[in-house]
Design a protein that fits this description.
heterotrimer, A alpha/beta (298), B mainly alpha (204), C alpha/beta (265), B: 204 residues, mainly alpha, MetI-like fold, elongated, C: 265 residues, Rossmann fold, 6-stranded mixed β-sheet, 23% strand
Chain lengths: 298, 204, 265
């Protein structure tokens, strides 16, 4: 090949790079954090937008809340799903608020004020922290609330993850709010194996999130937080003001989808991905399809 | 294998995006490395310093470099693209220098004496003879870039890395395997194709 | 007459960094059509002097005049295309065929394809290589002697008025060398090209030269015909040089050649 032809090919090959610089501007960039539920909800948002004819670029798997917020503020992403509790505690550094509506109002106001970030309509889904146990143990030991757990604690073995022990609103907060009890035994597990320990009778209670897929099974129950320790953790789409102004469809589409994400829906989607190795894209698509059917009927 | 069997179109689409990323980055890298290599090849004193500096860039752990680039360029396509262009410099420039300096000095002297201008000597004598070595450098760079490009999945980029990192987050090993196998297949194919090209440009 | 006149006027070339001069004030002239040999040991400056003609070596003093024009005023690239250049290492372009090698300068000068093709065949025949057999061969498929024939063809392809040759047969085996020497004389006579030929081989000089320039340490020891050099050496150095080795044979050769020359005129 002659040299001039090689040069021409190089320029042609470089064209996509240049094209991409302009390509980025027109797509709505949807982000997610690096755990299953965030993935799924972000995928629902992304597909809902695509179904409405909005081009989407996915920037999933961002490492943490800090990274996602930094990305929002720098304009690297236009929207992502966030939890009111996380926003309250990890971003705004405020004490937890158990009531869903209050929590939402506070974060929505402050985010708009401080960051120019808008909270769209929240979902009923409340992915809060919890303690879980098996139906058998709940029945045998008369455990229905966390106060019951505090009383029975000296006889109970806890299965948990490292983060729960370290978080101020994890075990330390639990012990503080419920009278300073101690568990008979505490063991940490990998997040995927934690419930196995409970089910295989190697533990009596386990730390949990209320929308964990494993809880969908009939064998596990959530214990009620009667002293309202744990914050509301409702998920909602966060969006940059500028992005919403440029494309009002974002608000319309996501507000229509958000109210349909309930605890049950979240649990079954989480279970599908984690237990049945389903592709999040397929699960999200099924959710939206069912939703479309329902709205058509209403 | 099961994810691969269940979602062949998605894996193929990601593989296509992956190879496009690598190809464009390689082209951009050549646009920088070839002039740089030519400049260094003409200056025997400078070449070791330049190649040393580029080699130093190459030893920076990819994740660390990527993190710095994300700071500057944000998330998405750009930081991984820039990382690939930077990493490729060492392998490409080194081979440009070796290729050009490996050309028989007598032929260059004859070319000068016959009345070729410096650009003509470069295009008509030095480049054609340096081409196999250059393509060898491209081959090595491409293989490395296919591998490094998987990190794009960590910073919201494109390509098979997305599959691998999603698989990690979602605890789905099948996704990870599918992404890795596809990347391997790409690397093997590119290697074979460029070896063929290298052999074809060799002077008998 | 198509042949060039070359004149060296007090040419000086310095060695970089050293006090000594590579060429230290050389002056002589080549007349049109002459084959002049620069003879001397390695390091005497003969190659350096040769390369001042086509400006591969810059001057530090004096002038080189080609057909009445100072070469320093000419465009170096165009100058080199009008002066043939053959080197010891031959330097055929390994990625080109024999025909493409020979065609280099004509193609640089913009000749048409058919002009080039015709000229290539002409030249291959001239240097004793059958065109159909050799045209498409690669340099790697040639013997040393064949390769240098192509080198010579390549150098004279665009009909230069002058030809510079830097120990061109040094890398060729002894048997092929003699054949090449004889052919070279025939070719440059036929083409009437002024030729400057560098060698350290006394017999080669005697065999080829119309005149010989003996050089030592960057200076000219003597400029003379082979016969005059042999019969009337100007300095002890020249005498030792030309009478070294088999000087009986050389004497025979030189006088016989002179006889032939005078017989032909």
């Amino acid at each position: 090949m002659s040299i001039s032809r090689a040069r021409a090919l190089t320029l042609i090959a470089a064209a996509p790079t240049l094209a991409r610089c302009t390509f980025d501007r027109s797509h709505v960039r949807v982000g997610s954090k690096n755990f299953t539920e965030s993935f799924l909800i972000a995928e629902i948002y992304a597909q809902a937008l695509e179904n409405a004819g909005v081009p989407v670029e996915r920037l999933f798997n961002l490492g943490s809340t800090q990274i996602a917020m930094a990305a929002m503020q720098r304009g690297n992403i236009d929207c992502y799903p966030e939890y009111t509790g996380t926003a309250l505690i990890d971003v705004l550094h405020l004490p937890p608020i158990a009531d869903s509506h209050t929590a939402y109002d506070v974060v929505a106001r402050l985010f708009a004020q401080r960051y120019g970030i808008v909270w769209l309509h929240p979902s009923p889904m409340n992915d809060s922290q919890a303690l879980a146990t098996t139906r058998e143990i709940a029945a045998t030991l008369h455990l229905a609330t966390l106060s019951d757990v505090a009383t029975a604690a000296p006889h109970l073995r806890l299965a948990t993850i490292q983060e729960f022990l370290a978080r101020p609103d994890g075990l330390p907060g639990l012990q503080a709010r419920y009278g300073g009890f101690r568990f008979r035994e505490i063991r940490t597990y990998d997040i995927a194996l934690k419930y196995r320990a409970l089910l295989e009778n190697k533990a009596d209670v386990a730390s949990a999130f209320t929308t964990d897929g494993a809880i969908e099974s009939d064998r596990l129950v959530i214990l009620r937080d009667d002293r309202h320790l744990w914050s509301a953790y409702n998920v909602a789409p966060l969006a940059r003001k500028a992005a919403l102004q440029a494309r009002p469809a974002i608000a319309r589409v996501l507000n229509a989808v958000s109210p349909a994400i309930t605890d049950e829906a979240a649990r079954s989607m989480n279970a599908a991905v984690e237990n049945s190795a389903a592709d999040p894209a397929d699960v999200a698509a099924a959710f939206l399809k069912a939703l479309g059917g329902r709205t058509n009927q209403s | 294998m099961t994810y691969l069997a269940a979602h062949p179109a998605r894996v193929a689409a990601l593989a296509a995006a992956h190879i496009e990323l690598v190809a464009v980055a390689l082209a951009a890298a050549l646009l920088v490395a070839v002039p740089l290599g030519l400049w260094a090849a003409r200056r025997r004193n400078v070449a070791p310093w330049l190649l040393g500096a580029l080699g130093a860039i190459y030893t920076i752990p990819s994740l660390a470099l990527l993190a710095v680039l994300v700071e500057w360029f944000g998330l998405g396509y750009t930081p991984i693209f820039v990382a690939l262009v930077l990493y490729a410099q060492f392998m490409l420039a080194r081979n440009v220098v070796a290729g050009i300096n490996g050309v028989d000095r007598a032929q260059v002297d004859a070319a000068r004496g016959l009345g070729m201008s410096p650009p003509q000597i470069l295009l008509r004598v030095e480049f054609p003879q340096a081409l196999p070595v250059l393509i060898g450098g491209v081959r090595i760079a491409a293989i490395a870039m296919i591998s490094i490009a998987t990190l794009g999945g960590y910073v919201g980029g494109v390509g098979l890395g997305v599959l691998i990192f999603n698989g990690l987050t979602l605890h789905q090993p099948q996704m990870i395997i599918a992404g890795s196998l596809a990347a391997c297949a790409l690397a093997i194919t590119v290697d074979a194709a460029l070896r063929l090209a290298e052999a074809n440009t060799r002077i008998s | 007459m198509n042949a060039a006149q070359i004149a060296f006027e007090d040419v000086v070339v310095r060695y970089p960094g050293s006090g000594r001069n590579a060429v230290d004030g050389v002056s002589f002239e080549l007349h049109g059509g002459e084959l002049v040999v620069l003879l001397g040991p390695s390091g005497c400056g003969k190659s350096t002097l040769l390369r001042t003609v086509n400006r591969l070596v810059p001057l530090d003093g004096g002038r080189v005049v080609l057909d009445g024009r100072d070469v320093a005023e000419l465009d170096p690239v165009e100058l080199r295309r009008s002066v043939g250049y053959v080197i010891q290492a031959i330097g055929l372009f390994a990625h080109m065929s024999v025909a493409q090698n020979v065609a280099v300068v004509p193609s640089l000068l913009g000749w048409t394809r058919s002009q080039i093709a015709q000229r290539v065949d002409e030249l291959l025949a001239l240097v004793g290589l059958e065109p159909p057999a050799y045209r498409n061969r690669r340099p790697s498929q040639l013997s040393g002697g064949e390769a240098q024939r192509v080198g010579v063809a390549r150098a004279i392809a665009a009909r230069p008025r002058a030809l510079l040759m830097d120990e061109p047969f040094g890398a060729v085996d002894v048997l092929a060398r003699t054949a090449l020497q004889r052919e070279l004389v025939r070719i440059v006579r036929e083409l009437e090209t002024t030729t400057l030929f560098v060698t350290h081989d006394v017999d080669e000089a005697f065999r080829l030269a119309d005149r010989i320039v003996v050089m030592r340490d960057g200076r000219v020891e003597q400029v003379a015909t082979p016969l005059d050099l042999f019969d009337r050496p100007a300095t002890p150095y020249v005498r030792d040089l030309v009478h070294a080795g088999d000087d009986v044979y050389r004497s025979y050769f030189v006088h016989a050649r002179e006889l032939l020359r005078t017989a032909n005129t």
